Amino acid sequence: QAGLTQPPSVSKDLRQTATLTCTGNSNNVGNQGAAWLQQHQGHPPKLLSYRTNNRPSGISERFSASRSGNTASLTITGLQPEDEADYYCSAWDRTLNAWVFGGGTKLTVL
Amino acid sequence: EVQLVESGGGLVQPGGSLRLSCAASGFPFSSYWMHWVRQAPGEGLVWVSGIDSDGSKTIYADSVKGRFTISRDNAKNTLYLQMNSQRAEDTAVYYCAREDSAFDCWGQGTLVTVSS
Lengths: 110, 116
Prior knowledge:
The structure holds 2 protein chains of 2 kinds. Chain A is built from 1 helix and 9 strands. Chain A has one helix spanning 29-32, and strands at 9-12, 18-23, 35-39, 46-49, 63-68, 71-76, 85-93, 98-101, 105-109. In chain A, strands 1, 3, 4, 7, 8 and 9 form a 6-stranded mixed beta sheet that branches. In chain A, strands 2-6-5 form a 3-stranded antiparallel beta sheet, with no helix packed on it. Chain A is globular and about 40 Å long. By secondary structure, chain B is mainly β. Classes of the chains: A mainly beta, B mainly beta.
C-alpha cells in the first residue's frame, strides 16, 4: 500500500522554526487531512494534531498544522532540545480502505 | 487515565504463530475503533489492521491479509492480533492504538522477532 511522502531529515537551530511536510493524494491527505505524531527514541508515538489543525489537550501551541491541497505541514516554532525526534504523518486512504503513514522525518535541533 | 498495555510478543520461528493482546483501561473500550501498528527496528510506522467498536468490521494491510486476524473482547476490554504463517519481515514492535479521528492513544508496544 502506497504511503505518504516525508523528507527523511530536517535540521534547524535552537529557537528557530521548522516546517515539516507530508505529501499524499486526493484520496488521503487531500480528502480528510493528515494527523501528525512525534516519536522519541525508544518511546511510542504521541499525537500532536489531527484532521489537519486540531491539537489534543496538553499539546503545546508551538506545534501547528495546516494543509494545502494534497500536502500537509507541521510547523514547530521556538525549537527546543526536546523537539528533537521523529515526526510521522498519517491519513485515512478512502481508496485503499487503509490507514497510511509517511516514512517519517528526523528533526535535529542544532 | 487512558492506558493500553500490549503483551504476547516474543521469538517465533518462520511459519509459526503468535497471539498478541492489548488490555485497555480508562475509557469506554467498546466505543472505539482499535488498531495494530508495527515498527520494524530502525524503520517507520506501518499500519497493520483495525477493528470497529463491536468487532463486526475488520480491515487489514495487504502485507498481512490472510495471515493475521484482529479481534476484540469488549467484555474483557481486550484487543487481539492472531499472527499466523509469520515471516522474517514481520519482525517489529507491535503497538495497539485507539482511533479517535486519528491514533490518539498508544501502548508501549511488544516486540515480535521472527527468526530460526
